[in-house]
Design a protein that fits this description.
Largest sheet of chain A: 8 strands, mixed
CATH architecture of the largest domain in chain A: 4-Layer Sandwich
Distance between the termini of chain A: 77 Å
Number of helices of chain A: 16
CATH class of the largest domain in chain A: Alpha Beta
Helix content of chain A: 25-40%
Strand order of the largest sheet of chain A: 7-6-5-3-2-1-19-20
Number of strands of chain A: 25
Shape of chain A: globular
Radius of gyration of chain A: 28 Å
Strand content of chain A: 25-35%
Oligomer: homodimer
Amino acid sequence: MKNHPLRIIPLGGLGEVGRNMMVYEYGNDLIVVDTGLMFPDNGMLGIDYIIPDIEYLRQNKDRIRAIFITHGHEDHIGAIHHVMAEIQAPIYATKLTAGLIEVKLNRRGMANRAEIHVVSAGDKIVVGAFSVELFHVCHSIPDAVGLGITTPAGLVVHSGDYKFDHTPVDDWPTDYAKLAEFSQRGVLALLADSTNAVNPGWTPSERVIEEGFDQVFRKAKGRILVATFASLISRMQQVAEATERSHRKLAFVGTSMVDNMKMARSLGYITFPETLVVSMDEALNMKDRDVVIMCTGSQGEPSSILGRLSNGTYRGLEIKSGDTVVMSSHPIPGNEEAVYGTINRLFERGADVVYEAIAPVHVSGHASQEEMKLLLQLVRPKYVIPIHGELRMLKRHAFLAGQVGVADENIAIIQNGQIVEFENGKMTIAGRVPVGSVFIDSSGGGDVDPEVMRERELLAREGIIMVQVAVDRYSGGIIGQAEVTSRGLAFKDADAVMAGARRVIGDTLSRANGNAQKDLEQALGSYIYSETRRKPTIFISITRV
Amino acid sequence: MKNHPLRIIPLGGLGEVGRNMMVYEYGNDLIVVDTGLMFPDNGMLGIDYIIPDIEYLRQNKDRIRAIFITHGHEDHIGAIHHVMAEIQAPIYATKLTAGLIEVKLNRRGMANRAEIHVVSAGDKIVVGAFSVELFHVCHSIPDAVGLGITTPAGLVVHSGDYKFDHTPVDDWPTDYAKLAEFSQRGVLALLADSTNAVNPGWTPSERVIEEGFDQVFRKAKGRILVATFASLISRMQQVAEATERSHRKLAFVGTSMVDNMKMARSLGYITFPETLVVSMDEALNMKDRDVVIMCTGSQGEPSSILGRLSNGTYRGLEIKSGDTVVMSSHPIPGNEEAVYGTINRLFERGADVVYEAIAPVHVSGHASQEEMKLLLQLVRPKYVIPIHGELRMLKRHAFLAGQVGVADENIAIIQNGQIVEFENGKMTIAGRVPVGSVFIDSSGGGDVDPEVMRERELLAREGIIMVQVAVDRYSGGIIGQAEVTSRGLAFKDADAVMAGARRVIGDTLSRANGNAQKDLEQALGSYIYSETRRKPTIFISITRV
């Protein structure tokens, strides 16, 4: 067999590296790890979510041997239907992850599109030059795995999202033994989660939430609403247990939450007695102090159930004094304002709102600094590539790797699209492949390209000016007066500026010979800039009469 | 003297209560406390800052006896020139605060507009029915005061921004004795800062920053850049001292930072040897390891010096490998994304970036929970009105007040514009006055009203469509084809949608009888909605030929 370099390429993550999609390739074989979505920044108005541009996968369609999914959170599976629409390759995922993928594909009528292989932690899957061993990791969803990827160039460990929880909700800790075994075999490179690289210490166990919930449930005199991600399956189990302990009944609200709950329950990842759950209608007819409602919206999304409850626009349910709302999540960076706005509005409607800063109702699913060092010590890799994080987090992860003895030159901080090659035990940075982001405006418009995003921002930042003017088709002279309208522009004295604009239009037309349209745009643009220091988008409609 | 109620009204703060402006009135006398600005949210594109709508002050011009400013931060003085342009009243402020106000007024050629009385902690100022005693408080700027406001209705304590720092940079702790004395006299109501009401424990002393700076300065091999607010005067002193200890020289960059530094130094609030400071030009000609540069931009503002350095667009100075950048501040809520983006870009340019999460280079200037309880215990007020915070913080402050024994019915959680009245020792909520926000687009356009803000957001979220069409003036039939252009709209198949739009326009015009403009807008709007689920702003220009 001819010697090839092993190539590793992070393909998606917007400001983060490899968060949502990575590629490993050797010779003619290519495997994809994860197909997730990204959440839009604050400034990205009208965008629902973002997916990695899969141009590189498109270009290498015939070489893709398999897609491995590490766990079922949106930032790891959320682009699967976009990928499946273009790429033919078998998907390997654990039972719960496969279930969540199927829910997602079913909802889009793509149930038969994908060939999904349900595999388990401990399994070894051989595809082309790759032999992929799945090992169990703790995360805020059950059935998460990392990958031990053996290639002719060496063994690479890909952590996925993980933490070292000694008392996880499903009693299944991260597989220390497998990591130690990898280390005995000799690990060429570790690619590991950097999300919490700036957090000192050790991330608390999921188990602390139980006590947090019990405290809150004990004090609550009226209804309890718990908001979290629809894919936080462990949290659903914890809420169900706390509901049972407090002798209340539980209603799930929201399609994605109900679908995920049903699937996870049918697969045995959530267990609770049949009698615990009631429908929303039943819940609304019960005494307030007997009810727990679980819904989405913990990120302050205005269209989510909690978002609509906070705005008073959710039909069939209204927040009232005596309600306790539990925000069981951490704001995704950039969402702070929206989340705190939702909390404030819920308070305004009379609810008591309990969130992370006030009570232990959420813990992170990602390793903190001491855990990251533990992983490095367990795996003892020759090379380290920090992934899953912004540059500042990767840098911190590199600093931690340095602390446990990895040489600076053996740590690669890379960007999306950058190729890392391993050959003869040596790491090199080897060029780039096309990467990018596709903005999804799920309201129906289709993909929003960066050009449209720039247009939207420009419209919002600088405003627009529209001019309608009729000119004599022979003399080119203006007929009557120009109509000038603006949107999103602020003037010290609007009337004077509009009169000035009409004057500029008249003057320009009287001098114009040739491209009146362009002359008008220029003259009006510089007049408006001198008056407002803004550069609005200018539309000129000239009618020759 | 006739008995009047004492009325307290928070006038500004956007999502926060009374942060930037409050009014106290008794009978025919009215005093204003603070005249600050607010920072725009992420979604407010093109807005530089926001000030309280001072309609209520305008309506009561003749009753305003004085303006008291508690300290010199932007959120307490930043609207002073807007207020001074309309209101005639003497300003009372301590020396440093007065200096900062003068810097601000001078820059706008309003030096002679204001009558500023320089007062000191310990002073008592009698204006109309009010006797106002200033007491010293620690904050992240020297010379900050709270107010003990004696009125015929009782004594009200207004904390301003404060913390209980036992080892402040200027060695001047908060005036415990005065607070205890107020309590002996009997305090009707306490209005106190709620900023950190969700933070448990005690805010660390400003002094811990010294060690943080020393650590960072010791490790830095190249230039050091420290970014903070231009009004964080204590921080300038600390950076100067750390510079001296590390045998470097210090250059200040940026007009507002240099102006504030000079003023604070001339007044004795910053002290360092003349030889410590160099100009920017000198700094650039020195060895990298001899230089410290202090600048603004710690909030990720793209137009700030640090923002431009991170983008590579600052003239005369470029970030390079070996530079250490210290972000000595905490992101204002909503700025997290911008701040972390700046940090990532600085890393990309090769700098090492040190920020709050990594080293103790910033501490809060506001009291945490234990300090808030200490203030309540020292002052022992009958009534408590939490101010300076979002609703969720006020609620937490109220909870803390409950913990130290204040009865629920003696705590008022109010909104901006709400009047609290005190008469015969009883507190009542008594109606509202007009409040609001004025958006300042300082690039020259003048005040941006909420209508323009809505227009901007609509443009960005939904896009626009422009139609130009010529019709026969007699038959009303279309001549040629409509021209349809869009901005900020995404289509699955743009050509098909545009063709469809032209068809809809043609059909509508052929049926139109009466208001063709309106018919077209409606028909086109519903066609575009059916194709894109968006409701763009539609402009139609009909020319009758």
